[in-house]
Write a structure and sequence with these properties.
single chain; about 160 residues; alpha+beta; 4-stranded antiparallel sheet; 3-stranded antiparallel sheet; 4 helices; about 30% strand; rod-shaped; binds zinc ion
Length: about 160
């Protein structure tokens, strides 16, 4: 056993050490810690120092929720790219944009070629509105603008998902 190190007052991730706490079932010293969220937890020196214990458990819950949101976002976006509609979770309304799709000649959803001005036009249909994303010389640029817009608008929609 090494020299006893007092961790009182030190902070490990979300945990601030308040002082010595009860020993664990194997008789090891545990520290009484206060999590940033207010919960009290006990952790051994090595668990604190190695980062095995970073919070009362709230950090893991938040990360899991974030991962789930990310997953929902990707699912919704892929679904949109496939079917060309938005799913707004708050109302569960499917907003179709079949009219746009019919006129599409580029093969990229939301991107149209205007022969008159010889430019690709990128648009996105969000919650009943057509949003203009600009005119582009190449299909690639227009596609990129469209994808960025999808990410942007989808993020705001997915952020409304209540997952807790
Ligand atoms: Zn916590």
């Amino acid at each position: 056993m090494g020299k006893f190190e007092d961790l009182t007052g030190k902070k490990f991730n979300r945990l601030t050490v308040l002082g010595l706490g009860k020993r664990n079932s194997s008789g090891q010293i545990q520290w009484k810690c206060k999590c940033d969220c207010g919960n009290i937890v006990f952790a051994t020196t090595s668990y604190l120092k190695t980062g095995h214990t970073k919070s009362c458990g709230c950090l893991n819950r938040e990360n899991a929720s974030k991962r789930l949101k990310e997953k929902k976002f990707i699912e919704a976006r892929n679904n949109y790219r496939k079917n060309n509609f938005l799913v707004d979770n708050t109302s569960l309304v499917l907003i179709s944009s079949k009219k746009l799709r019919k006129n599409n000649t580029t093969g990229v959803t939301g991107v149209y070629y205007n022969g008159k001005i010889q430019r690709y036009i990128a648009r996105i249909y969000v919650q009943g509105k057509n949003i203009n994303l600009g005119q582009f010389k190449t299909l690639e640029e227009a596609k990129k603008a469209r994808e960025l817009a999808e990410d942007k608008y989808f993020k705001s929609i997915i952020d409304k998902y209540k997952l807790d």
